Amino acid sequence: MDIVHRRLHTQYIAQAAFEQPGDVVRWLGAVQAQDYLGSLWAIGLRMRQATESAVEQAIADRVIIRTWPMRGTLHFVAPEDVRWMLKLLTPRIVAANARRLIRQFDLDDAAIARSKDVFLDALHGGKRLSRDAMYKALEAAHIPTANQRGLQIVGRLAQEGVICFGAREGKQPTFVLLDEWVPAARAIERDEALAELARRYFVSHGPATVQDFAWWSGLAAADARAGLEMARPHLAHEIVDGRTYWQPQSAPAAIDGPPRAYLLPAYDEYTVGYADRSAALDRMQAQGMNLGNAAVLGPTIVLDGQIVGTWKRTFSEGSVVVAPGHVASLVEAEAQAFAAAARHYGDFLGLPVVLA
């Protein structure tokens, strides 16, 4: 089984097919989004024609929602999924962090409750506040925010479904009340939520193992297995080297042709959506390259499913300069594929590309 090529197809990187940002997010279940600009490109590269401004407009239009639904990490999710994902996934995170918040930040349940009241009052009526304004509201209520205490309060109340991100004002993110920003949606019970999350993950990220699903979702191993069992009617599986990989029932066929390259943003689902990322690192390992976390957490160059290096962007005189970082040796056709991928990124930004 060609794991990496199938993942390129199920994630719609190899053949972008979506018309709207919300369709991408809904398909993947969640898109990791702590690197804000990178996460816009993570959505855009899976669309037929996308621009950075159009993806950002989808945030302002409440088509995609940015919050902390899983693993204590920022993600984009569809509005109808926000509440059931928070209900399913965040209680485990909140419980695991409770003692740490008390020990390191002196934040017990009473302090969180007081902070909640402050935010409910400050944001009521559709108000949007920057992070600094949120901290000032807490300080005015004699709730200290220094030394990352404010960030811990904001993250905890987002996990509890009180607040989420709104649209940016200039380059500054804003916060809003989730119940005012996101329309009400059908509530689903725990078993249905587990089954839906598992189905969504394996259909969009497969081939993947149940361990990959547990990592991605942050679910306990038993819950991950239960979700997979309920989602099995929608999935197919293959056993490779004694491990069971789950995927959509209709697996993509291999495609012949010239090499294709993709510039993935930091924290793209293709690299961070799995506990075991080794399948995409075979070429680098074969060439003795070890980039550490940069190979899976940073902006990466992917060539025919294999991570072959890193890249970065800078802006100069109305152009975007795309520069490769540590890169495996490329033949001419592969270098041309990298140049094509860079031009695709430039189209997304609406800027000409200069290759450094």
Walk me through what this model shows.
The protein is an alpha+beta fold and 356 residues long. It is built from 16 helices and 13 strands. The strands form four sheets. The protein has a five-stranded mixed sheet. The chain has a three-stranded antiparallel sheet with strand order 1-3-2. A three-stranded antiparallel sheet has the order 4-6-5. A hairpin with a 2-residue loop joins strand 11 (306-316) and strand 12 (319-327). The longest helix is centred in the N-terminal third of the chain and has 24 residues, at 82-105. The protein is globular. The chain starts with a helix and ends with a strand.
Which labels suit this protein?
five-stranded mixed sheet, Arc Repressor Mutant, subunit A, alpha+beta
SSE topology:
Elements: H1 3-10, H2 21-28, E1 31-32, H3 36-44, H4 52-60, E2 65-70, E3 73-77, H5 82-105, H6 109-123, E4 129-130, H7 131-140, H8 149-159, E5 163-165, E6 174-177, H9 178-181, H10 190-205, H11 210-217, H12 221-231, E7 235-240, E8 243-248, E9 261-264, H13 269-272, H14 282-286, H15 294-297, E10 300-303, E11 306-316, E12 319-327, H16 332-349, E13 353-355
Parallel strand pairs: 12-13
Antiparallel strand pairs: 1-3, 2-3, 4-6, 5-6, 7-8, 9-10, 10-11, 11-12
Helix pairs in contact: 5-8, 10-12, 11-12
Briefly characterize the structure:
The protein has helices at residues 3-10, 21-28, 36-44, 52-60, 82-105, 109-123, 131-140, 149-159, 178-181, 190-205, 210-217, 221-231, 269-272, 282-286, 294-297, 332-349; strands spanning 31-32, 65-70, 73-77, 129-130, 163-165, 174-177, 235-240, 243-248, 261-264, 300-303, 306-316, 319-327, 353-355.
